Structures are given as C-alpha cells and as structure tokens.
Amino acid sequence: MDAGALEPDASNVALVEDASVEAGAAACVGTVGPAPDGARAVDDPALLARAVGAPEAGELCAGVVYEATRPIALYRVWQRDRAYTERGRWWSLERPTNSREDYRRDNAICPEWSALDVLSRCELRAGARFVVGPGQSVRCQDRSLIAASAVRQVYVDNDGQRGVFFVERCEQLGAFPSAN
Questions:
Q1: Taking the domains of the chain in order of start, what are their residue ranges?
Q2: 139-144 contacts: CB < 8 A, separation 24 or more?
Q3: pTM score of the predicted model
Q4: How many beta carbons lie within 10 A of that of residue 173, not counting itself?
C-alpha cells in the first residue's frame, strides 16, 4: 500500500474486511476483500453512507471507499431499452459469466429494476472514488426477498440526471448472458 493510502479502519469502513456482523434480522455475509488493483483506501463517510443500505433495502451490506489511482475496468449488466442505465451506479470488478438468474441473485437485483439483457465494460477514471463490498438483502415489489450476498459489488456515484459520470470509454460487449 502506498504511503498516501489509508488502512481500512472504523472511519472508512462500514464493516471490517473479514467480519460477519448481525444487522437487524439479517447477517452481512462475505467480506469487503482486498483493495482492487489500481485503488487505494480513502476516507469518505458521505460516499460510504450512499452505498451501504439497511437489510431488505438493497445496496451494499458493508463497504470500503477507494480512489482509483489509474483507470479500472468495470462491468455492468443493464436493460437495453433503458439506454440511460448503461452508466448506472452498480458495477462488477470481474466480467460476469453466470446465468441471468444467478447474476440477479448474486447481486440482489429485483426483476422490476432491470431485464439484465446487455453487458458493457467501462473504465473508471483515475481519481474517481468508489465503494466495494458485499451485497445487502432486498425486498422486491412482489414481496420476494433476495438474500444478502457475499459477491463483491462496486458502487460508483454516477448521476445521469445531473450528467455526472465517473466512467468513460464504455463498450457494449453484447447480449447477456452470452450465447457461448
């Protein structure tokens, strides 16, 4: 870790990296894990608060705020007929290869939020801040519950309504899941 980077501690971590803590009736599962390549931990309580949600509300269960020290590849599955969602807030560090149903469950995405039919790759800009952590449980419109997930998700504070994006060089990789 470089000299300017923060060690994750109580000021910049919603939950310590390797703990599992009871949050109301639902436990946070998984870990925040190591810092992504090209990122350093930083203190940004406001960004952390926007990314971490209560049980059954979605978002992250726990997280650490990072700042990109170089461009970082991120992947997003979104709905083709809602093109404005291509550069949304929720991303993955790895290219997803699982089924649509598994991706929905692993990332706690309610069916009414997205059809999850197209995959894009974008670069997070150097200097951009983002949050990484395991997913929180979510109660969907049909009252079904998607459990908290150990899968690490990425929150980027993109805001399409204000035209604020921290990702660039986006490329649509095709239909999701891929046919091959």
A1: 22-175
A2: 139/56, 139/57, 140/110, 140/111, 140/112, 141/110, 141/112, 142/111, 142/112
A3: 0.84
A4: 15
